[in-house]
Q: What sequence folds into this?
């Protein structure tokens, strides 16, 4: 695709090309619109290009769009309709004509401009720096309404800086740059971005105490130049006094600098928010000094009152430093890939023409019997599966599994991060927002992509070629995940009809979509999930202090100290190895991930067997049993279960499946030593716990074994 960017303001233009190649897409956009587009959230340029691609597809099917105001106007139309390219009351065929208003851009511009709020802010040097709203991509919408702005001018100079704007004037908070690696840069960003969310509350409280203070810009500088950032945990020594920050005020420059001692990070290695209180108290000291026009001698009772009002809840945390004796815990916590969620624009697009070829009923009518509905939905499931299979057969197997495993691992890490910081999230945002609703929405986003990701993994190991296929692109990844999500949705509709949970009535729309009553989900399933999630989130918050327990790992606990003799015997008969051997196998794979410094591990079956036998002492029979128990092998077709299994073991909308990538998280290309093996460290740990714990507790049905 070629994106042609036009300069100039207020000028019309027309252009055409001779002998334009087929399959070569073109879109023209004004530079002002491109910059506006780029200010949106969540990969807006990619979303715009997807829009142009979808538009071209619809035009190829005969749909005519009447749009005289350019591609960006069309994009705004598509975006405003929640990515619904062709309305439900129009067929995707010749004769369908969709007029598009010329003013679709205006509401999008208003939304983006209000969200970004791009303007300039006066600095203490009496210059002006361009700034945009800080927190516009935050999970909590209350952040978008707070007067906190990030400075683009400072950022271009390599400085993290932001300002809180009030009627009094701007109050700056910046971090003095220092040399260092990615770990140090990450830490400085976490400190700045975390504390600026408390800084605006502090600024408002201080200005309420001193309403006659100067209206000039003031600045607080955080100086971490002396701070020592260790790769490993540094344990405080007995009797050691950890330093507090020192504040230096320059009234002439209207600057207060907070200098932190080298060992200051140790304050964050405990469940209490001592570190946060010391940082915020030092900042408050600087602010009060600048407002009072003094360089020292700030009244401690004033600072105490500010701390109680701004940081009253002891659960308010910005930085969390936990100790672990397990390298795999450290590796999993450092997973850096940002979670990829379901692309709604691809999900909506995948529904067009969905019902075509799946029923003899005319579009615009309804299916009103249980038999008709189930027959239709089953055919739709097969249709979507055929589309997924066709795409997978064009893609390199290793490429697909590698990328989809990264998606799944990022979801696991994101869920763990929210659970570890649940107490802090509640303390920071509960006064202004429904934290449980926001956290549950985030969990819903994770679930909406994790099941499709596991589904694609299970299909790809069977259907993708080992050689000759294309590498998986992000566009194709979004499309595959969307189709897998749609497959699960349609199949669950079929199960709901079949189980008499909903009325068997399906409306068929002209554009190929269908609708069905999902009231059971809203009245039964959703309330249950809401209560279940809230209980789990509260439990995670209550376990926060346990993360700081400084306990050395005890000697290896044997299985017979934990499990009954009957369970151990049953486990060995069922799986061909003892629970101790299974734990040894898991530990070796975790060590392999640490050795590779990657949560997604790629090796060979021969190397895996060698490590299990030489390092862990497993017999060849135990090695084979471990791999067979926790591995999914390539087979010629995904939709044909191997001997000893049934369809319910593979179809992803069923629970407690024996061939799921949860129960069997190791993906094997074959049974020869040079065949590739993939696994995700987080998924393997969850899968191992799933099998062992649920077997021991009797949570799995008899037919699972």
A:
């Amino acid at each position: 695709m070629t994106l042609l960017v036009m300069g100039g303001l207020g000028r019309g233009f027309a252009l055409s090309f001779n002998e334009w190649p087929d399959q070569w897409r073109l879109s023209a956009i004004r530079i002002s619109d491109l910059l506006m587009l780029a200010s949106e959230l969540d990969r807006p340029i990619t979303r715009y290009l997807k829009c142009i691609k979808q538009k071209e597809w619809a035009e190829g099917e005969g749909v005519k769009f009447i749009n005289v105001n350019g591609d960006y106007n069309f994009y705004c139309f598509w975006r405003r309709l929640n990515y619904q390219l062709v309305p439900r009351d129009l067929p995707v065929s010749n004769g369908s004509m969709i007029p598009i208003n010329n003013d679709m851009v205006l509401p999008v511009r208003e939304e983006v401009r209000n969200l970004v709020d791009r303007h300039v802010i006066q600095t203490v040097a009496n210059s002006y720096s361009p700034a945009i709203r800080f927190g516009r991509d935050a999970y909590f919408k209350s952040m978008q309404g707070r007067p906190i702005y990030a400075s683009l001018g400072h950022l271009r100079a390599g400085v993290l800086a932001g300002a809180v704007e009030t009627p009094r004037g701007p109050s700056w908070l910046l971090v003095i740059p220092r040399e260092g690696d990615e770990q140090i840069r990450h830490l400085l960003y976490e400190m700045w971005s975390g504390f600026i969310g408390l800084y605006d509350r502090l600024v408002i409280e201080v200005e309420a105490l001193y309403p006659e203070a100067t209206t000039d810009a003031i600045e607080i500088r955080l100086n971490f130049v002396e701070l020592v950032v260790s790769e490993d945990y540094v344990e405080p020594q007995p009797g050691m006094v950890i330093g507090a920050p020192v504040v230096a005020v320059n009234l002439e420059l209207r600057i207060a600098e907070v200098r932190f001692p080298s060992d200051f990070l140790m304050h964050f290695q405990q469940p209490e928010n001592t570190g946060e209180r010391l940082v915020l108290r030092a900042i408050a000291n600087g602010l009060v000094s600048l407002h009072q026009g003094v360089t020292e001698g700030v009244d401690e009772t004033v600072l105490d009152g500010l701390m109680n009002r701004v940081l009253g809840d002891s659960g308010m945390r910005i930085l969390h430093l936990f100790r672990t004796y397990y390298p795999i815990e450290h590796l999993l916590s450092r997973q850096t890939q940002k979670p990829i969620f379901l692309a709604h624009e691809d999900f909506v697009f995948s529904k067009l023409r969905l019902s075509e070829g799946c029923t003899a009923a005319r579009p615009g009518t309804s299916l009103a019997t249980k038999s008709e509905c189930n027959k239709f939905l089953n055919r739709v499931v097969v249709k979507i599966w055929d589309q997924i299979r066709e795409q997978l057969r064009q893609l390199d197997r290793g490429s697909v599994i590698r990328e989809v495993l990264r998606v799944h691992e990022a979801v696991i890490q994101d869920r763990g991060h929210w659970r570890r910081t649940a107490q802090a999230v509640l303390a920071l945002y509960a006064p202004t927002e429904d934290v449980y609703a926001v956290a549950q929405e985030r969990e819903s986003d994770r679930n909406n992509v994790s099941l499709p990701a596991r589904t694609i993994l299970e299909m790809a190991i069977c259907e993708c070629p080992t050689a000759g296929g294309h590498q998986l692109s992000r566009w194709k990844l979004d499309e595959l995940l969307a189709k897998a999500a749609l497959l699960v949705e349609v199949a669950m509709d079929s199960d709901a009809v079949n189980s008499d949970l909903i009325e068997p009535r399906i409306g068929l729309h002209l554009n190929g979509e269908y609708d069905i009553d999902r009231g059971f989900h809203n009245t039964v399933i959703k309330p249950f999930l809401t209560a279940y999630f809230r209980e789990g989130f509260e439990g995670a918050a209550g376990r926060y202090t346990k993360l700081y327990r400084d306990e050395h790992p005890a000697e290896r606990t044997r299985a017979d100290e934990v499990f009954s003799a009957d369970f151990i015997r049953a486990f060995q008969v069922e799986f061909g190895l003892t629970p101790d051997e299974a734990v040894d196998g898991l530990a070796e794979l975790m060590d392999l991930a640490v050795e590779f410094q990657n949560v997604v591990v790629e090796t060979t079956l021969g190397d895996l067997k060698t490590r299990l036998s030489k390092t862990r002492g497993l017999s060849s029979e135990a090695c084979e049993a471990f791999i067979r128990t926790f591995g999914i092998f390539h087979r010629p077709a995904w939709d044909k279960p191997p001997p000893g299994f049934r369809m319910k073991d593979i179809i992803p909308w069923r629970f407690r499946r024996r061939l799921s990538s949860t129960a069997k998280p190791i993906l094997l290309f074959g049974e020869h030593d040079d065949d590739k093996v993939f696994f995700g460290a987080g998924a393997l740990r969850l899968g191992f716990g799933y099998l062992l714990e649920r077997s021991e507790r009797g949570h799995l049905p008899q037919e699972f074994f």
Remarks:
- Residues 343 and 502 are 28 Å apart (CA to CA).
- The longest strand covers residues 160-166.
